Request: fold
Amino acid sequence: MQRPWSALVRSVLLVVALGAAWLALADQTQPPQAADSTLETLKQLQHQLERLRNRVQGMEGKLRDSALARKSADQARMGAERQLAESTQELDALRTAGQALETRQAELERRLAEQLALAEQQTAALQAERARASALTERIQALSRHVPQADGGTLTAAAARQSAAAAFALLDVDAESPARADHDPALAKAQMKLHRHQLKLASVSDAQGLYRVRAKDTLASISDRFYGTSARWRALYEANRHVLADPNRLVPGITLIIP
Reply:
């Protein structure tokens, strides 16, 4: 593409050349003074032409620099657009990955909530089982206190004797009551309770057996019944001191240990 400044310069040169030719022709016909004036005019035109040529060259240099700058700017713009496109793609990929992570996180949170709920249920069930186990342990311990050590329990002779004494205290009160009678349910219950405790004491003390006192029984008669002699009444008394405050006073219905 031809630059407009170059065309203008050529036009000016053409005008100057035509003027010079015309001046040369006129110089042949004009007087010397007019020729000098024409020559001076031609020099001025040449000087203006040179200034114009320099100005055009300067403007052409600026145009080249501007074209180069525009080209660099276009390249920078295209590079920036390419980087923007790449960054947009990366951003879209990151957004997609972020959405996937959010979905995964929501799923994990849901599973965690389920596991926590299950753990709470299991914890509650475990606590309930521990409570039942503790209650069962206490129950076993309570029962073991009534079972002789020889049978795997913790019942000692002293503890069995103390329990039998407590049962006899209740029986003794009932026995002294005016309502005492063989058909009295409270009395029968107290007698049976004493019998159970005496049975436990007999078990832990390796006694020979038990005997339920009847009316008109004495320690001597009971000794004669089991040992064939009444002389061992004191052994009976010593073995049953926890239920016999007086060896000469036996309460019918009570159970004695036969050592």
Summary: The chain has a mean pLDDT of 82. The chain is about 75% helix and 5% strand. The two ends are 143 Å apart (CA to CA).
